[in-house]
Design a protein that fits this description.
Largest sheet: 4 strands, antiparallel
Strand content: 15-25%
CATH topology of the largest domain: MetI-like fold
Number of domains: 3
Order of helices and strands: HHEEHEEEEEEHHHHHHHHHHHH
Number of helices: 15
CATH class of the largest domain: Mainly Alpha
Low-confidence stretches: 283-289, 426-431
Shape: elongated
Strand order of the largest sheet: 1-8-3-4
Radius of gyration: 33 Å
Helix content: 55-70%
CATH architecture of the largest domain: Orthogonal Bundle
């Protein structure tokens, strides 16, 4: 008894470890994507997301305030205020050049000034009559020469610039090191969503994914009932062929599929024109061209797995219930609609999750068979195009990735109660 209990405890421990490993493998990348998407561009490009929550020393170029007309013996200011003024000036000039330009304001810099780089003259150790220039880092509170005055700063950014004679020149450019506190914001999401391609791509993805999920479920449910409870010639052979299609790689079937759809695209477009009257007048806000082709392709690729899973589930439903329905005079259609479908919700939901995720995240099929218009491309194609446009802007790429993950995440969480039941369906006889 103790040995059996120990084995059960050990098995439970390994199960928990495996579950923890799976959670880490899925959650950590998502945290990385989300964290990177809300960081400033420079931080995201230079450091990994694991450094996002710790202060980081970073160098900045700052121009101080200049002396007023008539001169001044003392100029007081704040390094952070000078940086904000310069930043605002740059954005105003950029918007003046292009009225439609969207340039997100960089996030406010918060932290402590830890050093300022300056060039000072020191006696030449080899020749007492000469001096040499050396670059040194001035610490907070130290007075050092800047231009014609003496410069002193504090860790909070406040500085004083003193002169022996009134100074009315321009400010000086300084290289400042700031122990920068982590900063987060939603500018990347604003920039991505204000790009008209992304909202249109979201609509196109829904137009493709929803029918491409529902159509194979409906066909597979009918087929599963037929394979499980109806007797007809060649039933077993046909089911073997269906199962055999599961092992055919998508890449292997893709070339003949492309050849076939060269002709299918023509009637696919006609089908779209019949489905949407706006196609004829070119009044569609989002063109549906070639959407029907994608529906057919995803249905063809999803049907073998759907039929296999649903047949196993439907075949293990209590036989007595179906026999009672037949004795009461129910037809196959009535039995299917009133008994099979309600009892098969867990299996239908489980496959629905798989199919939705596959179609929503698909790039290969959409790349070659899907619409190519600026307003009709699905979201994976938009993200793929952003790899070239935003290759140096990881925060924008990650924001797009997070947006694409939100919808399937909602679908999974809403159907998760059926997921485990559906996966285990058919594994035990007499269930």
């Amino acid at each position: 008894m103790n040995d059996a209990s120990n084995r059960m405890s050990l098995a439970k421990l390994f199960a928990h470890i495996a579950l923890l490993a799976v959670v880490i493998l899925w959650v950590v990348p998502f945290i990385g994507l989300l964290t990177t998407s809300i960081r400033p561009q420079k931080d995201a490009n230079e450091t990994g997301f694991w450094r996002a929550f710790t202060p980081m020393e970073r160098g900045h170029a700052v121009r101080t305030q200049g002396g007023p007309d008539g001169g001044s013996l003392l100029i007081e200011g704040n390094i952070f205020d000078d940086m904000a003024v310069a930043q605002q000036t740059r954005f105003e000039r950029a918007n003046e050049r292009s009225a439609n330009a969207f340039i997100p304001k960089e996030m406010e810099i918060v932290g402590d000034v830890t050093g300022i780089l300056s060039i000072q003259r020191f006696p030449d150790p080899n020749d007492a009559t000469k001096t040499i220039r050396q670059t040194v880092i001035q610490e907070p509170g130290e007075a050092f020469s800047v231009g014609k005055g003496e410069f002193t700063y504090q860790r909070d950014g406040r500085y004083t610039w003193r002169f022996d004679e009134p100074y009315s020149g321009k400010g000086k450019k300084l290289s400042v090191f700031i122990d920068q506190q982590p900063k987060f914001g939603w500018n990347s999401y604003v920039q991505v969503l204000t790009n008209v391609q992304v909202p249109n791509a979201l609509i196109s993805s829904f137009v493709v994914t929803i029918p491409a999920t529902l159509i194979p479920i409906m066909i597979a449910a009918f087929a599963a009932y037929a394979f499980a409870w109806m007797r007809f010639p060649g039933r077993d052979l046909i089911f073997v062929v269906v199962v055999a299609l599961l092992v055919v790689p998508l890449q292997l079937a893709f070339l003949p599929l492309l050849t076939s759809f060269t002709q299918a695209a023509n009637w696919g477009t006609s089908l779209n024109e019949w489905l949407t009257d706006c196609e004829a007048s070119n009044s569609c806000k989002v063109s549906s061209a070639n959407f029907a082709t994608l529906w057919i392709a995803h249905t063809a690729f999803g049907l073998p797995l759907a039929i296999y899973l649903l047949r196993n589930y439907v075949g293990n439903l209590p036989k007595e219930i179906l026999e009672s329905a037949r004795m009461d005079g129910a037809s196959h259609l009535q039995t299917f609609m009133k008994i099979i479908v309600p009892l098969s919700v867990p299996a239908l939901a489980s496959f629905g999750i798989f199919q939705f995720l596959w179609v929503w995240n698909d790039l290969l099929v959409a790349l070659y068979l899907g619409p190519d218009g600026e307003t009709s491309r699905v979201l994976p194609r938009i993200i793929q195009s952003q790899l070239g446009t935003y290759k140096s802007q990881l925060h924008l790429l990650n924001a797009s990735a997070v947006i694409s993950m939100i919808v399937p995440l909602i679908v999974f969480l809403s159907l998760q109660r059926y997921f485990v039941r559906g996966l285990l369906a058919g594994s035990v006889k007499g269930g």
